[in-house]
């Protein structure tokens, strides 16, 4: 804390005290010569739930007055969010077999096409897989020739049919082995020369991570590169569990990346499960092809939940709503001051509160420093 902090705190406290002192002075200096005022005092004080104060006292106490508004209160839920590539637009590239990196064709930031080779890993396993594939192909050729020979001998009546059928079975087995060897080579992405494993990307995008180095020995499934398509993004927002139940797919979202920018989005889905670590529910937001966002970027989001939004209701500032005992009240302007009027509140958002019942739109109420009226009312009740 620097030296200015106590001064600011003292100034703020002085303003609150000044408002309170002003309110007290206003109550002491207001006119008391009317017959109606004398009658109230003779009856034992002001009417219940009423606080008498003059116009001058209201100005001195800095009590703001405004009309209760009629409008819509979107139940906006604030949330912290992270930009991520969609699951089908990001790929983690690994070596399919252990070996030594002999070639690297791309650098971070380079564009990559789906299927394009990014690196080569020379591997003994690759050579073994390639040799198995070649041997399986040779066995197919041999079995095919043997079956053809047995067919000719069967046609000449030299060999029995059983020999021909045995040759047919041998050819089927050889072809099955060849298919297995070919599938293994494709899965490992063996190069044409049979010496290396090809590291390629299944998606188009840009190279975002490159942890591989020439001459480095890597184990199988070691992460070497990452490729992401920056055009296909999703935003994951963390929402308190108590608020998540109000969110529905399709709800409007405002994304705030900073610098005064606002990006429109929509809720795509949500997990509905509370994370045991963050105690929050993950909401997935789609922002289309929004520009200026990148995977890993942090931003703020405002989710306008369709459940809990007020349409055509009465809206008042949050500071206008006060609690006295078990009641929630607003202070309605009267000819002699204010009256504490009980209300039922609904949702809250952005410093505003929706009033479900107890107040009509257009009613003039205390919207600022209403706590001074509450304090005076509680003091009179205690006396």
TrEMBL record:
GO terms for biological process: copper ion export; plasma membrane copper ion transport. The keyword Translocase does not apply. Keywords: Transport. Residues 131-182 form the CzcB-like alpha-helical hairpin domain. One of its GO terms (molecular function) is transmembrane transporter activity. It comes from the Bacteria. InterPro entries: BSH_CzcB-like, CzcB_C, HH_CzcB-like, MFP_Cation_Efflux, RND_pump_MFP. Pfam families: BSH_CzcB, CzcB_C, HH_CzcB. Residues 314-374 form the CzcB-like C-terminal circularly permuted SH3-like domain. Residues 91-229 form the CzcB-like barrel-sandwich hybrid domain. GO terms for cellular component: membrane; outer membrane-bounded periplasmic space. Belongs to the membrane fusion protein (MFP) (TC 8.A.1) family. This is Efflux transporter periplasmic adaptor subunit. The lineage of its organism: Bacteria, Pseudomonadati, Pseudomonadota, Alphaproteobacteria, Sphingomonadales.
